[in-house]
Design a protein that fits this description.
The chain is α+β, with helices and mostly antiparallel strands. It is built from twelve helices and six strands. The protein has two domains: about 200 residues, Reverse transcriptase/Diguanylate cyclase domain (Alpha-Beta Plaits, 2-Layer Sandwich), CATH 3.30.70.270; about 200 residues.
Length: about 400
């Protein structure tokens, strides 16, 4: 019984669904570059990854300042000081916890970064103004020690905010502006202390610039290494690792939305004779031409063109029925024919052609994503047996796995 049928329909579902970040890579689907959100996401994730530490250390410094000035402080002042810092620390901890629990889409990254920076700036402002009010009537020695504690509170925020550039400059201004004014214009001027604090400001700013430069360089290297690990160097398309990660995410998304996931697997007909005749450089050039044609044809957001290995390629089409995937596969076949690339002498067809297998599946508890790949693979091998330069669709997903094994055994 023939379980595979030729693709005939050219219609494709273009139903729009709500954007779901699950399963979507941070890299462009075409594989030609890196999304600007990649850098932003890594920056924001780095901010919140250790976001509890600055909040707790700032609260600890606030306790240290009270312990230092305990004999000179009134009860209400201590209560207000602890209340303000306790509220700020609790708010920052809740903010960090919420970010780490939620799935934050790319459109909200700037807002979350602003939340973190604003919380740190408010903390710095409370430190600046509050410390001035606490130490205004304290002896010189206690004031100097208080400014040491204040400097420690600033340095607590240094590792995170210095990497954000101007945010750390604003923190320095918010935290140290009032203490500098007190040292220079207060009833007990401390010009030497003001000079030391200015030196701290300048050195912190310079160190922050260097840290930011180093951080950005490292971030770019990380993103580049991640890109190299997920994209094929010859064609620029996504590689098999990227494909498997994306398929897993799209499988879960289709399961939630009760939609279909389609896959087209195609490869170059009789590529070995072509490679033997034109050599490896010619074979590589052919694969690049095919990859470029596929990338120009498949451009819907969420679709992924991938080089699976050798001369075999795939097109992952989320939320697409079999008829739509078959239409795309046939367009790919025609696009390759239109390239008019001469084949090796003795090949079945005078020009380079492709064969493709198509499968589409609505995920449920009976199936795995591997079943979709096996079904498309079975359809591809049936297309090869049918004479090449054609498209075959696998209608019965349950039978794809044993069929793929039998066809591979027959062909090898």
């Amino acid at each position: 019984m023939n379980i595979l049928r030729a693709a005939g329909s050219r219609s494709r579902s273009r139903a729009q669904v709500a954007d779901d970040s699950a399963g979507q890579g941070e890299f462009s689907a075409s594989g030609r570059g890196v999304s600007a959100n990649t850098y932003l996401r890594r920056q924001v994730v780095d901010l919140y990854r250790r976001g509890t530490v600055p909040a707790l250390l700032s609260l600890l410094c606030a306790c240290g300042l009270v312990a230092l000035l305990w004999k000179t402080l009134s009860g209400p002042a201590v209560g207000l000081w602890f209340g303000a810092h306790g509220l700020l620390a609790a708010s920052r901890l809740l903010l960090v916890g919420r970010f780490n629990r939620e799935r934050v889409g790319d459109g909200l990254l700037l807002r979350w970064r602003a939340h973190y920076v604003n919380a740190a700036l408010v903390t710095g402002l409370v430190w600046g103004i509050g410390s001035v009010l606490l130490v205004a009537r304290a002896p010189h020695v206690l004031q100097v020690l208080a400014w040491v504690v204040l400097s420690a509170a600033v340095l607590v925020e240094f590792p995170a905010l210095a990497r954000q550039g101007r945010a750390f400059a604003w923190l320095l201004a918010a935290t140290l502006g009032a203490p500098l004014a007190l040292m220079l214009l207060g009833p007990q001027p401390l010009p030497a202390g003001a000079g030391a604090l200015l030196l701290l400001v300048c050195s912190s700013a310079l160190a922050g610039l260097e840290l930011r430069r180093t951080y950005i360089d490292g971030l770019q290297m990380q993103v580049e290494f991640a890109r190299l690990a997920r994209f094929d160097q010859l064609t620029g398309l996504a590689n098999r690792r990227h494909f498997e990660e994306t398929l897993a995410g799209e499988w879960q998304r289709a399961l939630r939305l009760r939609g279909e996931v389609a896959l087209v697997i195609f490869d170059v007909d009789e590529f070995k004779p072509y490679n033997d005749h034109y050599g490896h450089p010619g074979g590589d050039a052919c694969l690049r031409r095919l990859a470029a044609a596929a990338g120009e044809l498949v451009h819907r957001h969420g679709d992924l063109v991938v080089r699976l290995g050798g001369e075999e390629f795939g097109v992952l089409l989320p939320l697409t029925p079999a008829s739509g995937a078959s239409a795309i596969a046939d367009l790919l076949r025609q696009a390759v024919e239109n390239l008019r690339l001469p084949h090796a002498p003795g090949a079945t067809h005078p020009m380079v052609t492709i064969s493709a297998g198509v499968a589409s599946l609505r995920p449920d508890s009976r199936y795995r994503s591997e079943d979709l790949v096996q079904a498309a693979d079975a359809a591809l091998y049936q297309a090869k047996r049918a004479g090449r330069n054609c498209i075959m669709t696998a209608p019965e997903i349950e039978q794809a796995s044993p069929v793929a094994r039998r066809l591979r055994e027959a062909l090898h």
